[in-house]
Amino acid sequence: VWEGFGMPFLEAGLHGKPSVAFKHSALPEVVIHEKTGLLANTDEEFKLYLEKLIKDGTLRSKMGKEAKKHAGNFTWEECAANYEVVFKKLILDCCQVSRKAGNGPL
Question: How far apart are CA 57 and CA 50, in angstroms?
């Protein structure tokens, strides 16, 4: 799946399912390689990882439990708190740039 953030992978994790994804964009934040799923760099690796999870029920179960725990970290409250930090930093940075340019506070 080629997706920017990886909501389908979080959904899978919430249901205790590990994922196989390509290692790009934000997916490594959502799928932790060899802990909550597997991250492939190539099509061949993707295929091998799928086969690995299909054949190894113990690994699938272990990664699924970890995926469920990890998915629980992604809440709207956490998202809002992270945005608040970013916005405050942006405002502070803009104020500092404005002062340096001699424009006074924003």
Answer: 12
Structure tokens at 42: 């190539």
Q: How far apart are CA 54 and CA 27, in angstroms?
A: 21
Please spell the DSSP secondary structure of the chain, one letter per residue: ---SS-HHHHHHHHTT--EEEES-TTHHHHS-BTTTEEEESSHHHHHHHHHHHHH-HHHHHHHHHHHHHHHTT--HHHHHHHHHHHHHHHHHHHHHHHHHTT----
Give the mean pLDDT of 48-73. Answer: 97
pLDDT for residue 17 is more than 80: yes
Residue pair 53/18 in contact by the 8 Å Cβ criterion: yes
Q: Are 29 and 17 in contact (CB under 8 A)?
A: no
